[in-house]
Design goal:
binds FE2/S2 (inorganic) cluster, 106 residues, four-stranded antiparallel sheet, mainly beta, Rieske Iron-sulfur Protein
């Protein structure tokens, strides 16, 4: 497990996603108020960037076919996706946003 600094908190737009590449992982970071969530950026249904999706509370909607994913668990909440996407532990310390990579869940 490696903890990497991946972003500056104030550079993240509240209610939006951004793609970052860290430690060989393609991540989608989402800021929701004072929290940051990190998912695998690649939709589990087909090739699409979840960072470009639409946030709605604790979920993100894939921009390609509209599957919904839970930001906390990565679970696919609606079709056409049926498999979860990886979730990474994200922490905010002052202006620094860290993500732990190396193990994917699930
Ligand atoms: S690519 Fe995401 S729902 Fe199809």
């Amino acid at each position: 497990m490696t903890r990497l600094r991946v972003a500056t908190f104030s550079a993240l737009r509240d209610g939006a996603g951004v793609r970052v590449d860290a430690g060989g992982h393609r991540l989608a970071l989402f800021r929701v108020g004072g929290e940051v969530f990190a998912l695998g950026d690649r939709c589990s249904h087909a090739e699409a960037s979840l960072a470009e999706g639409i946030l709605d509370g604790g979920t993100v909607e894939c921009p390609r076919h509209g599957a919904m994913f839970d930001l906390r668990t990565g679970a696919a909440l609606s079709f056409p996706a049926t498999r979860p996407v990886p979730v990474y532990r994200a922490e905010v310390e002052g202006e620094a946003v860290f993500v732990e990579v190396g193990e994917e869940s699930p």
